[in-house]
Amino acid sequence: MYASSMEKEENNTVCPLKYALNLVGGKWKLPIICILAREESVRYNSLKRKLVGITNMMLSQSLKELEENGIVHREQYNEIPPRVEYSLTKEGRSILEPLESLSEWGKIHMDKLRTQSPYCGECREVK
């Protein structure tokens, strides 16, 4: 029997790891966070140029979700032409240290795999 969407939501909020991954998971949220971590604020079009392959709809949706979850701040300037800038909130910056740790773990794991074999499965079969 399948769990209702409400039960799934409740289960995700019970586990802190699932909750955190739900906030920043997906194809585009981490790259957005990484770009915003390097700069104080970034305009929409600049983000779009740096995220090769993202659609306007996906960028807008990802930014909206990150903003709703308190990770990204959206500042709209009432100028002509209108200007909008995005930046990480204090809460958003607080995830950078855990992401750095996860990155270090990934690097170590990748290095271990490389020492086992210099080739991927496909290359090994060709040689």
TrEMBL record:
InterPro entries per UniProt: HTH_HxlR (IPR002577), WH-like_DNA-bd_sf (IPR036388), WH_DNA-bd_sf (IPR036390)
Q: What residue ranges are annotated as transmembrane?
A: none
Among the Pfam families in the record, one is: HxlR
Which UniProt key words apply to this protein?
A: DNA-binding, Transcription, Transcription regulation
Q: Which domain of life is it from?
A: Bacteria
For this protein, the record's PROSITE patterns field holds: HTH_HXLR (PS51118)
Using the record for this protein, list the coiled-coil segments as residue ranges, or answer none.
none
> What residue stretches are annotated with the HTH hxlR-type domain?
15-114
Tell me what this protein is called: Helix-turn-helix domain-containing protein
